[in-house]
Design brief:
Helices cover 37% and strands 21% of the residues. By secondary structure, it is α/β, with parallel strands linked by helices. It has one domain (8-223): Vaccinia Virus protein VP39 (Rossmann fold, 3-Layer(aba) Sandwich). It has a seven-stranded mixed beta sheet with strand order 3-2-1-4-5-7-6, with helices on both faces. Helix 5 links the parallel strand 2 (102-107) and strand 3. Helix 3 (56-68) packs across helix 4. The longest helix is centred in the N-terminal third of the chain and has 18 residues, at 28-45. It is globular, with a radius of gyration of 17 Å. The protein binds S-adenosylmethionine. S-adenosylmethionine is lined by residues 51, 83-87, 89, 106-109, 112, 134-136, 154-157, 165. S-adenosylmethionine binds at residues 51, 83-87, 89, 106-109, 112, 134-136, 154-157, 165.
Length: 230
């Protein structure tokens, strides 16, 4: 297995420090699991296009810490689904950091889910399941579970598309969290009626770039995730 140039000890130390800044405590086994996942991601990416971020620094900051930057917004959610997880973000770092919560990771691309499942298996992440599925199909046909306390998505679709495709997956009283870069004002203006958007700034340790979280909640029980629904 190849290693990341940053060096295992330095990489883990920076992950530990960055996570602590975000209020997340990681023990040695959790740091080790995320290190090993990063190595696996980098290795596999030489053969299968999983991510454009492959440097040790990038994996640390733009994948691991960026994923953990939503930690304080998870509330008391027990069941969480990551829509469009790609190479496993934010779902894998969150599942490793919060073993008491149950995570489902989905993506429409089979080869990405094959990799995520291999990672889950290799690292023994018992609170995560990965499925090759599109959000809209899962919500139409039902998956392992039909609704979740939290639906989360990073860098996937517009807010309106997320509500349309994944709104039905949000349990009553639950939230849909969209992780974005710059403030997506146009998208917020186009949020379907029946849904309320709240915006938070996120800070990623070691990163000088804008990050925002849009939290979407139903404002009326009639809203079923269709654009224009009241
Ligand atoms: N969330 C990952 C991250 O931030 O690294 C991947 C982001 S990538 C830009 C978007 C991913 O969303 C792709 O892997 C794509 O296959 C997936 N995707 C887009 N729409 C989807 C849908 N409706 N259901 C499931 N996956 C979807």
């Amino acid at each position: 297995m190849q290693t990341l140039e940053l060096g295992e000890a330095a990489w883990k130390q920076r992950l530990d420090d960055g996570a602590a800044e975000l209020g997340v405590r990681l023990d040695e086994s959790q740091l080790d699991a995320l290190w090993r996942y990063g190595v696996m991601l980098r290795e596999r990416n030489q053969h299968v296009n999983l991510t454009s971020i492959v440097s040790p620094e990038g994996i640390l900051t733009l994948h691991m810490l960026d994923s953990l930057s939503v930690a304080s917004h998870l509330g008391d959610a027990r069941s969480i689904i990551d829509i469009g997880t790609g190479g496993g973000f934010p779902g894998i770092p969150l599942a490793v950091a919060f073993p008491e919560r149950k995570f489902t990771l989905i993506d429409g691309t089979q080869k990405k889910i094959r990799f995520v499942n291999e990672g889950i298996e290799a690292l023994g992440i018992r609170n995560a399941t990965a499925l090759a599925a599109r959000a809209e199909d899962l919500s139409r046909h039902g998956g392992t579970q039909s609704q979740y306390d939290l639906v989360i998505a990073r860098a996937v679709a517009t807010l309106a598309e997320l509500v349309h495709n994944a709104g039905r997956l949000v349990a009553p009283g639950g939230r849909l969290l969209a992780m974005k870069g710059r403030l997506p004002e146009d998208e917020i203006g186009a949020v379907p009626r029946g849904w309320h958007a709240e915006v938070f700034s996120l800070r990623v340790p070691g990163l000088d770039a804008q990050r925002h979280l849009v939290s979407l909640t139903r404002v009326s029980p009639q809203a079923k995730g269709k654009p224009g629904a009241r």
